[in-house]
UniProtKB/TrEMBL annotation:
It is an enzyme of class 1 (oxidoreductase). Pfam families: Bac_luciferase. InterPro entries: Bact_Lucif_Oxidored, Luciferase-like_dom, Luciferase-like_sf. Gene3D superfamilies: Luciferase-like domain (3.20.20.30). Its EC number is 1.14.14.3. One of its GO terms (molecular function) is alkanal monooxygenase (FMN-linked) activity. This is Luciferase-like protein. GO terms for cellular component: cytosol.
C-alpha cells in the first residue's frame, strides 16, 4: 500500500514586515521538512497585504529550494491571467532544475476583481485569458515551437506538464481539469451560493469532486490528499464497485485530487 503523504498550505499572513514574512515562511517550510512533511504550498496575491502579500511565488520558492532538500514545493495558486505565460513556463523550468525536480505548479484564474485592471484585464476577461495562457505554457513545456521553428523553451521541461494542478469552484472546471489529466485543487474558503448560505463544504464540493473523478480519461487513477469526509465516502464507494480509488499523494491542506496515467 502506498503510504499517506502530508502537505500544508500557507498564505504568509504573519503580522510582520514583508522581509520578516518571507523569512518566517521559509523557516516554516524548513521546519516542516525536518518533521517529515512531504510538500509545502504557497499562495500568490497581488497588492493586498491582508491576503498574504506574495506576488512572486516562483521567485520565493527558488529561495526556499536553496534551503531545503526533500520537501516538494508547490504554488496554490499562480493567478495565471495576470502573468506572461512564457515567463511562467521559463521560470518554472529553471526552478524545477534548481529544486531537483520538486516543483508542483497550481494555476487558477483569480478572484479579486480590483487586481486585474493594473494588468490590463477586466475581471470578466479572466476565464478566456486563463485558458489561453495555460495553452501557451503547456505547449512550451511539451517542446512545441514557439511562433518560429527555431524557438523552443529552454531549459526543456516536459516533466512539468504532468505536475499541473487546476483550482476551481465549479463542476465544469473540474471536468476540464480531469479530461486534461491535471490535478484538482479545492479551497476551504469556497463561497456559498447567495440563496444557500447554509450549505456545508461537503455539499458544495462533493459534486465537483464526483464530476472530476467521473471525467478522468480511461486508464487514469486518482490520488488524493486532505480530502473532506464526503470525498472519502465517494472513494470507498469506488472501491466497493471494484474501481481504483488510487494511492495517497503529496498535496496541500486544500482538498484536491490528482489524475495519473
Amino acid at each position: 500500500m502506498t503510504r499517506k503523504r502530508l502537505g500544508f498550505f500557507t498564505r504568509l499572513l504573519d503580522d510582520a514586515s514583508p522581509k520578516e514574512r518571507y523569512r518566517l515562511a521559509t523557516e516554516q517550510i524548513r521546519h516542516a521538512e525536518r518533521h517529515g512533511f512531504d510538500s509545502a504550498w504557497i499562495a500568490q496575491h497581488h497588492f493586498h497585504e491582508s491576503e498574504g502579500g506574495l506576488p512572486s511565488p516562483l521567485l520565493f520558492l527558488a529561495h526556499v529550494a536553496a534551503h531545503t532538500e526533500t520537501i516538494r514545493l508547490g504554488t496554490a495558486i499562480i493567478t495565471l491571467p495576470m502573468e506572461n505565460p512564457l515567463r511562467v513556463a521559463e521560470d518554472a523550468a529553471v526552478l524545477d532544475l534548481l529544486a531537483d525536480g520538486r516543483l508542483e505548479v497550481g494555476f487558477g484564474s483569480g478572484g479579486t476583481p480590483t487586481c486585474f485592471l493594473p494588468f490590463g484585464l477586466t475581471f470578466e476577461e479572466r476565464g478566456a485569458a486563463f485558458a489561453d495562457h495555460l495553452h501557451v505554457i503547456q505547449s512550451a513545456w511539451r517542446g512545441d515551437s514557439l511562433t518560429h521553428p527555431d524557438n523552443h523553451l529552454y531549459p526543456p521541461a516536459p516533466q512539468l506538464a504532468d505536475r499541473i494542478w487546476i483550482a476551481t469552484f465549479s463542476v465544469d472546471g473540474a471536468v476540464r481539469a480531469a479530461r486534461a489529466g491535471h490535478g484538482l485543487m479545492l479551497s476551504r474558503t469556497q463561497p456559498r451560493p447567495a440563496d444557500r448560505l447554509d450549505l456545508t463544504l461537503d455539499e458544495i464540493q462533493n459534486p465537483i469532486v464526483d464530476a472530476y473523478l467521473d471525467a478522468l480519461p480511461p486508464g487514469h487513477r486518482t490520488a488524493h490528499s486532505g480530502l473532506p469526509y464526503g470525498v472519502r465516502r465517494r472513494q470507498r464507494r469506488l472501491c466497493a464497485q471494484g474501481r481504483d480509488a488510487g494511492p495517497h499523494e503529496t498535496g496541500p491542506a486544500a482538498s484536491r485530487c490528482r489524475a495519473r496515467g
